[in-house]
Amino acid sequence: MKKQDSIGKRIGMGILYAVLVIMAIIQIYPLIWVFELSLKTNQEVFGMSPFALPKDPQWGNYLKAWTTGGINKYFMNSVWYTVVAVLLTLILGSFVTFALTRMEWKLKGFVLALFMAAYMIPLHSTLIPLFNIFKHIHLIDNPLSIIISYTTFNLPITIMILLGFYQALPREIEEAAVIDGCSVHRIFFRITLPMTSPVLVTTAIINMIYNWNEFVFVNTFISSEKWKTITVGVNNFVGQYLTDWGAIGATLVISILPVLIVYLFLSDRIIEGLAAGSVKG
Amino acid sequence: MRNVMSNKFVIALYVLPALFLVLVLIYIPIVLTGYYGLMDWDGVGKMKFIGLENYIDLIHDPYFWASTWHSILLALFSVFSLLGYLLISLVLASKIKGANLFRKIYLIPMLLSSVAIAQLWSKVFDPNNGMINSILSALGFENLPLWLADPNIALYAIFIPIVWQYAGFYIIIIYAALINVPDELIEAAKIDGANTLHIAFRIKVPLISGVLKVLVILAVVGSLKYFDLIYVMTGGGPNHASEVIASYMYTEAFGKYNFGYGSAIGFGLLIISMTATWLIQKMLHTKVD
Questions:
Q1: Which residues of B touch A255 (CB under 8 A)?
Q2: What is the pTM of this model?
Q3: How far is B187 from chain A (nearest CA, A)?
């Protein structure tokens, strides 16, 4: 009886593992496939099975995408929009969270509700008026429109993640600082902000992933090639060079790589942040 | 303490910049969307007030209702797939070896842009050289589907990359909730003779029902405003077969320059999303805080 049980259990576990492994393959194989694609010639793509490995890796596809495809320019735009917007979101989000959790004022419940409710509003419903507002203040086809949109629309989730962390901070240090005659700014910049650095890193990465991948704002507000980001650039590039599958593969790999590298090193932080942000939402 | 930490000037200084941005870029536009919906406007010229005409047209517009139906189908499909994610999370959280690695791998698609996913899956679905039809033809199938080009299939074909993209996200959240279930409860149940299935569905699942309710809301609201991937993969086509509310709005406004009508659709999207959130909260007796 006992032995049968354990055999049954083993078979059961075997099936479970098989399911988990198959799912892992499904989740990751399309990425490997696109990497293989990026190293193929058109003859290989069209003449052979899509599962065949590239015979003679065409690293030149990357050079083609990077320079003639203009991906280098899009890439750099993405980098600096992302960095500036992440910094702005973190500092503004930290200010608000500090005031909401550490300071005493009447309207804080209402203000918190405003930030939280903004998370549930579909951004597409704001798109036409936003376009019109930016047009009136001459920010259409201007990177500023992108940076302030990224900052604003990431504030709710940023505050949500920071909130739980701030609430758990001990008050004794602040109280001691107040007694010593510290100003609020000093407490915020010298004590609270440094104490929150672990959660700031998590929040920064999550913001970075959102901004790096953002599509609709850039596609709507930016028309010049010189201001486009990699996400929109990839889309245009694929539209223009529909036939060169190798170069398309290379472009996709370049656009994916930065996020994958960050994930490789900081996956626990990212997972933690996503879980914290969404469950509170 | 009280004086320092309730300094009105400092509070304003800390709160107002962010509040200003959220009011001007999120709340004011929401009101304006409803207002622009009352206009005949091409986005460039003068707005002309036409009353409720756009909204009345919207109610009689079969494409609007078709795209709403597609969004609802996607929402139902997403909620249904939560069951699958729950099962996988239950297995992963039962302290099996490698659980951490599995959930890290599952999350990878979520990190990619919808554009990259759309381009990647367009290649996978390609009728001639794509991965899927190559497998099918190797297995001996003939008359292979055209996938994204077939109006009867396009919408359902798009559901596959959407599930692929979000699976890991839902799994890590359910997993995180499950591993926080106190061990003592499970030990006590075991002593009382409960088997694995009992523990899973009578103890663990009810204990994380709060998280599951939030995920239902996230899945529904996320589905209703779904846009990027569909816009890039099919543009809502062929012949509106994969159109969703947001893609219909975008094409009307930024493709056809019907900014007044596009705004009416955008307002419709807002009403539908808010109603759905409210309904689910009522149905599940939960409160999002």
A1: 113, 115-116
A2: 0.91
A3: 20
